Amino acid sequence: MFDANVRCLVVVGSQWGDEGKGKLVDVISEGADFVVRYQGGANAGHTVVIGDSQFILRLIPSGILHPTTTCVLGNGVVLDPESFFSELDVLSERGIATEGRVVISDRAHLVLPYHKLLDLAEEKRQNIGTTKRGIGPAYEDKYGRRGIRVGAVRDLAALELLLVDRIRRANEQLALAGMTERASLDEHVALVRRVAPRLLALAADTSLALHRAIKAGKRILLEGAQGSLLDVDHGTYPFVTSSNTTAGGASVGAGIGPTMIDGVLGVVKAYTTRVGNGPLPTMADDVMEEELRRIGHEFGAVTGRPRRCGWFDAVVVRYAARVNGLTALAVTKLDVLDSFDRIPVGVSYLLDGERLDEMPADVTALDRVTPVYEMMEGWKTDTGGARTLAALPTAARVYLDRLQELAEVPIRYVSVGTRRDQIIG
Ligand code: IMP
Q: In this structure, how many other beta carbons lie within 10 angstroms of the beta carbon of residue 418?
């Protein structure tokens, strides 16, 4: 499903995550030689349904479900080794061949148990509503130049010395935060010794591998995790994750130059959801929210938390189009709207009586905006069986046309159900 002129494609979530990137990447990666994760860690939860089987992937790219694809975890990823190997083992148990198909950058940083304890401590202070997977503290260590990278397991004696310092430091922070739990040095030493041989077997200079692949004319798909509005720079700060989820992050986090990338596909739901705290301007009223959540099964794939649900927000998607340089859109979960009589679409905001067409930088301003809605006719028809745009009811086509007009990006794919085959594109 790669377009003929695209060899290196970035796929990014263009709302607050959970846009259905897993399924899209699964479908598109059929034509990819490499699928690369470039940021985030086990906070992501990509759900892919194949036949009667459902796979939830956290760290391993969705491309693993295509037997000829090589999966890469780039330098921008923060890797929880226990979570990673348990995911790999579950895939093997379920008959997916993983041997020789997964490569990890030796520059990726490790997420260790002390990071998860620090995440809990920080949540007590900040209440961001994180996934508690240690993501923020692992990135803090990375940028504070005290992180531990995958390549560090090559010298366990040196790594154990580093751990003495990191555990002492973490325990000081935990005490300051009033936490009763402490990180155990013995436990960490045992963990790194246990995972070192397996990590070393997969560690490589993945930037070099991708560079060679690009030169050889291979097709590369760079799979973003979370969503653009959760980007640490461009998102609704501080209610964001700790990495650059936007397309620029793909270049940095995979170690390939921006000139190599020739397409950026933005994935959006036909409506909007958000998990964790922070503003969601187009949140639906209680009844409609419940309806969207029930029909769309809007519960976190990693944490099980109910997602807040609302209407399509064109301000958000236009902004995402800008900061990512989107070249195309994929609209997912159109079928979730099949039963609604009328469907509101947020086209702009009102802030203190003034019209706002662009995303404000200040989260407190975003908290105060009132969305301006346009009412679209519902189609009241099951779209799950449509495989072409022409097979969609007219009102659904009108709806999609309006979304791409508002987003100022053409729609390339429309997903109408959870199964692999339920796609128009
Ligand atoms: P963290 O990434 O665990 O630090 O969480 C920071 C924010 O990002 C919280 O609001 C999380 O709910 C949100 N978040 C992190 N990963 C995902 C994801 O994969 N989907 C949706 N939201 C996410």
A: 18
CB neighbours of residue 112 within 10 Å? 27
Q: pLDDT-based confidence at 1, cuts 50/70/90?
A: low
Smallest CA-to-CA distance from 195 within 82, 110, 79, 91 is with 82
Average pLDDT over residues 330-340: 98
Give the lowest-confidence range in 22-31, 292-301, 324-333, 368-377: 22-31
Mean pLDDT across the chain: 96
Find out whether the beta carbon of 9 lies less than 6 Å from any atom of ligand 1: no
pLDDT for position 309: 98
Whether the bond between 410 and the residue before it is cis, its omega within 30 degrees of 0, is no
Instruction: List % helix, strand, coil for the chain (3-state, nearest 5).
Output: 40, 25, 40
What is the spatial distance between Cα 54 and Cα 47, in angstroms, rounded to a whole number? 7
Asked if 58 contacts 195 with a C-beta cutoff of 8 angstroms, the reply is no
Q: Given ligand 1 and candidates 15, 18, 23, 43, which is best to mutate, with the most ligand atoms within 8 Å of its CB? A: 43
Contact 331, 383 (CB under 8 A): no
Q: Is 30 left (phi over 0), alpha (psi -120 to 50) or beta?
A: alpha
Atom of ligand 1 nearest to the CA of 302: 19
pLDDT-derived band of residue 49, with 50, 70 and 90 as boundaries? Answer: confident
- Can you list the alpha helix ranges (DSSP code H) found in 94-205? 113-126, 135-143, 156-176, 185-202
Domains and CATH numbers, the chain: 1-106+205-425 (3.40.440.10), 110-200 (1.10.300.10)
CB 346 within 8 A of CB 281: yes
Q: What is the 3-state secondary structure (H, E, C) of 317-386?
A: HHHHHHHHCCCEEEEECHHHHCCCCEEEEEEEEEECCEEECCCCCCHHHHHHCEEEEEEEECCCCCCCCC
> Residues 213, 217, 222, CA angle at the centre, nearest 5°?
60
Ligand 1 centroid to residue 126 C-alpha, Å? 14
Q: How far is the CA of 42 from the centre of ligand 1 (A)?
A: 10
